[in-house]
Amino acid sequence: MPDWFIGFLKKLEYVFLQKDRYKQILTGLGNTVIITLGALVIGVIIGIIVAAIRSSYDKNKESLKLRGGPGYYILKVLNGICKFYLTVIRGTPVVVQLMIAYFVIFISIKDGVPIGIFAFGINSGAYVAEIFRGGIMSVDNGQFEAGRSMGFSYIQTMRHIIIPQMFKAVLPTLCNEFIALLKETSVAGYVGVMDLTKAGNSIGGRTYQYFIPLFTVALIYLAIVMLLSWLVGKLERRLRKSEH
Fold first, then answer.
1. Burial 77-100 (b: 16+ CB within 10 A, else e)
2. Does the pLDDT value for residue 54 go beyond 70?
3. What are phi and psi of 221, to 5 degrees?
4. CATH number, domain 23-184, options 2.60.120.10, 3.40.640.10, 1.10.3720.10, 3.40.190.290
5. pLDDT at 132 over 80
6. Mean pLDDT, the chain, as a whole number?
7. Three-state secondary structure along 162-226?
8. Domain-by-domain residue ranges, the chain?
């Protein structure tokens, strides 16, 4: 066995096995997955609500304006709030939003994981909302008319007819947003969360061997992203087949 390989194995043992430092990588990976999944759930919920409000306003503002009444003004105000939310969230860096949530809004909470879920969820919701809005706007208006002819209200039409079709159309894009969100969580260490990136950096700081832990972190991210990308590709092919 070559001397360089033996030396590399000794470095691996020193970096990861001594003092069970590999457990930091496992903890970081777990926190990264928890934050990503939790943020995705929040993002989807916010995205559906914001997209429904904005698309409803875009599709019905003229008819509501002619009809008059408080409904038009309520929807207009809600649409204005949604546009403000989208402008602020999409116009500021996610790391700044994360730090505001940790050091300003939830200053009394010391556990950064739930704050990370909240901050990344709010951020993801802005991007998911635009994905969903595009999906809703792409659904043919005849589908709305079909729902109304069946006696559904506008909300029932959205719930039972439009949103299911929208999900099918935007599912691959939504999965890509999930992949982007996974990588964005690498800044969670700014608020003291032991995420995957923070774990690699921490091990490097204690062992003065940065190459091995950070390269390991990069490989883990790459493996997860490649797996998710493969699943997204498989999903897209299945959706194309179902359309035929």
1. ebbeebeebbeebeeeebbebbbe
2. yes
3. -60, -45
4. 1.10.3720.10
5. yes
6. 85
7. HHHHHHHHHHHHHHHHHHHHHHHHHHHHHHCCCCHHHHHHHHHHHHCCCHHHHHHHHHHHHHHHH
8. 23-184
Could you tell me if 24 and 203 are in contact, meaning their C-beta atoms sit under 8 angstroms apart?
yes
243: left (phi over 0), alpha (psi -120 to 50) or beta: alpha
State the pLDDT at residue 99: 93
Distance CA 152, CA 74 (A): 21
Q: In angstroms, rounded to a whole number, what is the distance separating the alpha carbons of residues 30 and 46?
A: 24
**In the chain, where do the E strands start and end?**
none
Q: For residue range 201-229, list pLDDT tens digits in order.
A: 998 888 888 888 999 999 999 999 999 88
For residue 1, what pLDDT is reported? 63
Which tokens sit at 244?
């035929």
Handedness of CA 116, 119, 121, 126 (dihedral sign): negative
pLDDT at 148: 72
Say if residue 157's pLDDT is above 70. Answer: yes
